[in-house]
Specification:
Layout lengths: L8 H12 L4 E5 L13 E7 L2 H9 L5 E2 L16 E5 L6 H14 L5 E7 L4 H12 L3 E6 L2 E7 L12 E5 L2 E5 L11 H9 L9 E5 L5 H8 L3 E6 L2 H13 L5 E4 L11 E6 L4 E2 L2 E2 L2 H13 E12 L5 H4 L6 E6 L2 E7 L3
Parallel strand pairs: 1-2, 1-4, 2-3, 4-5, 10-11, 10-13, 11-12, 13-16
Antiparallel strand pairs: 5-7, 6-7, 8-9, 14-15, 16-18, 17-18
Helix pairs in contact: 3-4
Organism: Deinococcus aerius
Keywords: Cytoplasm, Methyltransferase, rRNA processing, Transferase
GO molecular function: N-methyltransferase activity; nucleic acid binding; S-adenosylmethionine-dependent methyltransferase activity
């Protein structure tokens, strides 16, 4: 979840700023994370999140959050728009995603309503606030703490900016549909390319294959093209939709699930698991996610099944993979390594 293992710094400043402003009543939080704004006195939180991990945390806290991504129409859940909207910009997910967030916030804020917009100066905050102010008609930065900033904007009547178009490319015989903010949306990732090139001779026909942390769905679609019965999972809802679009664009079938690692997989098991696991959460390097991917593979592999993983050379995943079977290095190239481990059976 963003901010892990602490509270996201921009969200913390946002909460403090809204507390000082004595914000009360219904607040639509388009980037709820762990639900910090719900702790503000007098605030009734409308929680919106696209992260499966955050949705799990919110449910445990008793908050019935809406799973949604930039551009989704929230009027089915809340027919009357809240007068106050809050958003933390995810500038680290790229320009298109942050601009999609701004357009979404504008669509969700009624004329005369207020948007509190938080972000990181080093991740494009100034650029995105200018875009928001142009759409809203007024606004200024009202709080600063280190590199974090919060702006307050009041919406005037006017058109909502258009959402950025999806990106895409072709790689390994797959037409990829990359939605804004999804990892490797505009071009194939080097590590993923090394992984798929290494596995070119792998026979997947009739095999049950899991693409763990699927992103745009390139790996899962590649496996489906080779005759596999594929399941793709990702903790990010935008990535889930991108992967579904990629399968559809190629006329391929597969199951794509919004899942915090393997939480949504029920009793499914697999003959092969393929992954390019993330090792960043926001701005920090966090290996916990990749280690949980490896632990999930240990739970989900059939006897004789293999986990194939690509990682940056220095990342120490071999010991964790040893819980499945001895880690084998299949390839080392360009600062990356491809590792495999097979479950005994």
């Amino acid at each position: 979840m963003r901010g892990f293992p602490e509270v996201d710094a921009a969200q913390a400043l946002l909460a403090g700023t809204m507390r000082k402003d004595r914000v009360r009543g219904e607040v639509l939080d388009l980037s709820t994370m762990g639900g910090l704004l719900g702790s503000l006195p007098g605030v009734t939180l409308r929680a919106v999140e696209g992260s499966a991990a955050a949705l799990t945390v919110l449910a445990a806290a008793g908050l019935e959050a809406e799973a949604a991504v930039p551009g989704d129409d929230l009027r089915t859940r809340w027919p009357e728009r809240a007068r106050t909207v809050a958003l933390v910009l995810a500038g680290d997910r790229g320009n298109a995603y942050a601009l999609a967030q701004v357009a979404w916030a504008h669509a969700c804020t009624p004329p005369g309503g207020t948007l509190y917009l938080a972000g990181d100066r080093d991740k494009g905050y100034d650029r995105y606030v200018r875009a928001a102010a142009k759409a809203f008609g007024t606004g200024e930065t009202i709080a600063r703490d280190g590199g974090m900033r919060v702006a307050k904007l009041v919406r005037r009547p006017g058109p909502t900016p258009a959402l950025p178009d999806p990106e895409g490319y072709e790689a390994f015989g797959v037409r990829v549909v990359g939605l804004p903010g999804v990892f490797s949306a505009a071009r194939p990732d080097k590590a993923t390319s090394i992984l798929l090139g290494t596995l070119e001779s792998l026979d997947l026909s009739g095999k049950r294959v899991l693409d763990l942390g699927c992103g745009t769905g390139l790996i899962g679609a590649w496996a489906a093209r080779r005759g596999a019965e594929v399941t793709l999972v990702d903790g990010d809802l935008q990535s889930v939709r991108s992967a579904r679009a990629t399968l559809a664009a190629n006329g391929l079938t597969g199951e794509v699930l919004h899942s915090d690692v393997d939480a949504a997989l029920g009793d499914r098991t697999f003959d092969a698991i393929l992954t390019n696991p993330p090792f960043h959460v926001g701005r920090g390097v966090v290996l916990d996610v990749a280690r949980e991917f490896i632990a999930a593979a240990g739970r989900r592999l059939n006897p004789g099944g293999t986990l194939s993983l690509v990682a940056n050379e220095p990342l120490p995943y071999e010991a964790a993979m040893g819980g499945i079977g001895p880690a084998r290095e299949l390839r080392r190239e360009g600062g990356f390594k491809v590792l495999a481990a097979t479950r005994a059976g």
